[in-house]
Design a protein that fits this description.
The protein contains six helices and 20 strands. With about 300 residues, it is of the alpha+beta class. The protein has two domains: about 130 residues, Diaminopimelate Epimerase, Chain A, domain 1 (Roll); about 160 residues, Diaminopimelate Epimerase, Chain A, domain 1. The chain is globular.
Length: about 300
């Protein structure tokens, strides 16, 4: 007997259909096994998938598993936002708590109708060595002169890892010519599943960034708008002393997706203790939920 699966296509971190980062949200996925989830994500690749499952944790409202076309992922920021935009359309709630591979994540609907994802601050890892940096730059068609001299090139994250690489200006961001297969092969040696390149700009006491991200090792050549990487970037920029701080918070706005025709925006807030050490990181944005489709499963 055939089964069906209700699926919502969503554009995350945008207010415009066709902008931001696409994700697929599957509700009532408790009937599916791991292999079947991976097959669906591979066969119907219109963005990373979030599969909603019954809660297995007493402190959570639901469980979530995430899949790219190539593998299961521990956490995906834009797919989390997409999932909660769908859930809020069907049953509005100010707060939901999801449980997954990285633990409990709180998602709130803000007064502006956006969704804010709060989690523990991502870890900052090692600064890469000079020989590693030369290899990365060559594979991105960059020269050292195009780097932002204010901070080191380093790895961030835990279950998901990204190399954070600051550039001097937008022209350098526009000129990138990544060699995807070689970057994918480098990722396991480097210990970074993706490469997040950013340009910071300060104006009127506020910081904005524009970014590009390449993750060929997990099947995504260029990601339109990454929420998770922006949380890592927030911790990195705070450590460098580049983020404006007020009332126990450090904030900035990240823009991404222009280079792939899917512009979007992420609002990032880092919560600080009395010693100005990060205690939590939040990423927020809107989403466009499209009409549901029904997949027929064997």
């Amino acid at each position: 007997m055939s089964r069906t699966l209700r699926v919502f296509p969503v554009d995350a971190f945008t207010t415009v259909a066709g902008g931001g980062n696409p994700a697929m949200v599957a509700l009532d996925a408790g009937q599916l096994g791991t292999a079947e989830m991976q097959r669906i994500a591979s066969d119907h690749h219109q963005g990373d998938w979030a599969f909603a499952l019954p809660a297995s944790h007493t402190d959570a409202d639901l469980d979530v598993r995430f899949f790219s076309p190539r593998k299961e992922l521990p956490f995906v920021g834009h797919a989390t936002l997409a999932l909660h935009a769908v859930l809020d359309r069907l049953e509005p709630r100010a707060l939901r708590r999801q449980h997954g591979a990285t633990g409990i994540v709180e998602v709130r609907r803000t007064d502006t109708g956006e969704f804010s994802i709060r989690q523990a601050p991502p870890a900052l890892g090692r600064v890469i060595e000079a020989a590693e940096l030369r290899e990365v730059l060559a594979l991105l068609s960059l020269t050292p002169e195009r780097l932002d001299s204010r901070g080191p090139v380093r790895i961030a994250g835990g279950a998901s890892t990204r190399l954070l690489l600051g550039l001097a200006d937008t022209a350098a961001l526009d000129a990138l010519a990544p060699r995807m297969s070689e970057l994918a092969a480098l990722s396991p040696r480097l210990g970074a599943q993706g490469y997040f390149l950013f340009v910071p700009r300060s104006e009127a006491g506020r910081l904005e960034t524009e970014s590009r991200m390449f993750c060929p090792a997990i099947g995504i050549d260029e990601d339109p708008v990454s929420g998770n990487a922006h949380a890592m970037l927030g911790i990195h920029l705070h450590a460098l002393g580049l983020l404006p701080m007020a009332d126990g918070m450090a904030k900035f706005t990240g823009r991404q997706g222009r280079h792939v025709g899917r512009p979007g925006q992420v609002s990032v807030a880092i919560e600080l203790d009395d010693q100005r050490s990060p205690t939590a990181a939040s990423i927020a944005g809107p989403a466009v939920v499209k009409e549901a489709v029904v997949l027929t499963l064997a």
